[in-house]
From TrEMBL:
<feature type="domain" description="EAL">
    <location>
        <begin position="24"/>
        <end position="278"/>
    </location>
</feature>
<protein>
    <recommendedName>
        <fullName>Stage 0 sporulation protein A homolog</fullName>
    </recommendedName>
</protein>
<comment type="function">
    <text>May play the central regulatory role in sporulation. It may be an element of the effector pathway responsible for the activation of sporulation genes in response to nutritional stress. Spo0A may act in concert with spo0H (a sigma factor) to control the expression of some genes that are critical to the sporulation process.</text>
</comment>
């Protein structure tokens, strides 16, 4: 019978599905307590200026240090938080943590860098972002351009007035706007022209697959030229090999971030990168294996 033939697979599938649902429920049930208990941890991934190999900044990436499951990357819980609205709270927590770090480092006389934080599209529609962010940087005595706001490309698909206006306001206030995951498939040149942004952050998949193909190389050059013409800076994300770095260098890309240099790392490890006396002659020196 069919049941006899496939029953085991159905059962397996059911178990897997049940497991997923239980886990999702546990994530939702645990999120508020986790925030209150400080289980969400900000990791930092260095970003380098390609021209001279100097540290240019970092990206803040959240992890959940879960008491039972261990350190969790955000791929599973962020999409859930975007559905239940908790992302707004978590993002504000991350931004505040980042501001506190920048203030502390300024006081200690460490090199002044900027940090990119992720902004969910929900943050744009649910809150008065300009208000929240302005009072935050003011509270920590920071100039707004120390915070780079990463908004993923797919958020721009509906080019609503509200999105354009909010980004325009933030930009006029001095925050730096980065379009994240550019080239992942949603944007049009028309949208790019309309959006008040400062930085294009090239999608990882683009870096890892396209630029080693002949057509992809043409496209990279085209994007960098276009960005220049639009007075945008270009960051490459997900750089893993020397070959990729050389391509980016040849084509005039401004900044690079990726495992080739360092993985996202805990704050204390990043402080060592930030405070190292001699800037690395070879950018490879700053490689780190503090894995996420
Ligand atoms: P994203 O903003 O595009 O961040 C880049 C992701 O690529 C990070 O994954 C980073 O660890 C990873 N990555 C960096 N370099 C390399 C590389 O060379 N190779 C590979 N394979 N991966 C690399 P992560 O930390 O797992 O974060 C995934 C996504 O979760 C982020 O993508 C971002 O969209 C979201 N996210 C992370 N933290 C936050 C946050 O605090 N708030 C919000 N709203 N979203 C966040
Ligand atoms: Mg992002
Ligand atoms: Mg990012
Ligand atoms: Mg990205």
């Amino acid at each position: 019978s069919i049941k006899g033939k496939y029953g085991k697979h159905f059962a397996l599938y059911d178990d897997k599905l049940r497991g997923t649902l239980l886990r999702r429920q546990a994530i939702t049930d645990g999120m508020e307590t986790a925030l209150a208990k400080g289980q969400f941890e900000v990791y930092l991934q260095p970003k380098y200026q390609i021209r001279d190999g100097r540290l240019a900044g970092a990206e803040a990436l959240v992890r959940w240090n879960h008491p039972e499951w261990g350190l969790q990357p955000p791929g599973e819980f962020i999409p859930l938080f975007e559905r239940n609205g908790f992302i707004t709270k978590l993002d504000q927590y991350v931004w505040e943590r980042v501001c506190a770090l920048l203030q502390e480092w300024d006081r200690k006389g460490y090199p002044s860098i900027n940090i990119s934080v992720n902004v969910s599209r929900l943050d744009i529609y649910n809150t008065d972002l300009a208000d929240v962010l302005t009072s935050l940087v003011r509270r920590y005595g920071l100039s707004p351009d120390r915070l780079h706001l990463e908004i993923t490309e797919s958020a721009y698909t509906d080019t609503s007035r509200q999105l354009i206006e909010t980004l325009g306001t933030l930009r006029r206030l001095g925050f730096v706007i980065e379009m994240d995951d550019f080239g992942s498939g949603y944007s049009s040149l028309n949208m790019l022209a309309e959006m008040p942004i400062d930085v294009l952050k090239l999608d990882m998949k683009f870096i890892q697959t396209e630029i080693t193909r002949p057509t992809g190389q043409g496209i990279l050059r085209f994007i960098v030229d276009l960005a220049r013409w639009m007075k945008l800076r270009v960051v490459a994300e997900g750089v893993e090999t020397r070959e990729q770095l050389e391509r980016l260098q040849n084509d005039g890309c401004d900044y690079a971030q990726g495992y080739y240099f360092a993985k996202p790392m805990p704050v204390e490890s990043f402080v060592s990168v930030l405070t190292v006396q001699d800037p690395p002659a070879d950018m490879e020196n700053s490689r780190s294996d503090d894995s996420a």
